[in-house]
Amino acid sequence: MSRASRKYLLSLLVFGSNGIIASQISLPSWQIVLLRTLLGGTLLALIVLGARKRPAFLDHPRDAAYLAASGAALGVGWIFLFEAYKLIGVGIASLAYYCGPVIVMALSPVLFHERLTPAKLLGFAAVICGAFLVVAQGKGVALSPWGLVCGGMSAVMYAVMVICSKRASNAVVGIEASAIQLVASFAAVAVFALVAHGSELAVPLSANWPAILCLGLVNTGLGCYLYFSAMGQLPVQRVSVWGYLEPLSAVILSALILGEALTPANVAGTVFILGGAIFCEVAGKRRGAEKTSRRLAGSRSAGNLAA
Q1: Alpha carbons 20 and 15: distance in angstroms, whole number
Q2: What is the per-residue pLDDT for 253?
Q3: How high does pLDDT run on average in the chain?
Q4: Considering only CA atoms, which of 275, 270, 281, 285 is closest in space to residue 8?
Q5: How many CB atoms are located within 10 Å of the residue 136 CB?
Q6: At what angle do helices 90-97 and 145-167 cross, to 10 degrees?
Q7: Cβ within 8 Å of residue 234, ≥6 positions away
Q8: Closest CA relative to residue 223, chosen from 83, 44, 84, 56
Q9: Between the CA of residue 11 and those of 189, 196, 222, 302, what are the distances in Å?
Q10: Contact (CB, 8 A) for 10 and 182
Q11: Residue 93: what are its φ and ψ, rounded to 5°?
Q12: How many Å apart are CA 17 and CA 220, to the nearest integer?
């Protein structure tokens, strides 16, 4: 497994604990998002400034613009997602949010020239079914029309985030790229907070600051560094499929840390997600090996003809 793949998987595990930590913070959802992007963005920006070398984005403004757009989409997506949590429940909101990878995968042949093979589509369908089983709550949820709109917009913002991030070349990478994205994410959330909640920005001293600092510095700062620095080096379809490991990790961590019960549907969803992800990877590698074999066979044939 490549270093980028390991970083991406670790970021999904870190993000999977977001809900556990956020549940310990008694603040409005928009305020939690504002604090986490502020803390995470400040941490990465200070690291970049502390390096005392010319930032690469100064020489590559186009890449910086794509990265900033990606980060802004992430922040806006979080606002829609947390609002959907309140209006239609965590399960249905999560399902709506994770339609984002479906949008990305559907557009990948046009935007990134990545072919959708029947095997990959089958594996992806299994992953989607697994995600439904893992996060669906199934009853007692009032489907607010505005809540559904917020859930749908969170999916659209997820897709915009991935597409813009993939559009940037590798001229600006690592912590610098992640810092640009998180600072832009904070800027987008700050504009929303000022417009919608300008008189409510003060955070009470009684808030759970250890949990806030952990969510902002570790889960957002470190997590987004791992996530964004790996995303640019991975095929967009792998990013889409593996992204479903995040809700899976959230369910597993909730069971291990909070003692929440794993239902038979959760277990079945786990099998579908892992099985579908592995199937997509194996299918992709097999196709790559077949292409290599055909190229080698063609080269040998050409050599024989030349002889």
Answers
A1: 10
A2: 77
A3: 80
A4: 281
A5: 17
A6: 40
A7: 4, 5, 8
A8: 44
A9: 22, 31, 8, 46
A10: no
A11: -65, -40
A12: 11
Q: For residue 190, what are the CA distances in angstroms to 38, 119, 182, 201, 253?
A: 9, 43, 12, 10, 30
Q: Which two three-digit tokens encode residue 273?
A: 């997600």
Could you report the per-residue pLDDT of 258-288, keeping only the tens digit for each? 676 677 877 787 778 777 767 766 665 665 5
* Average confidence (pLDDT) over 49-70: 88
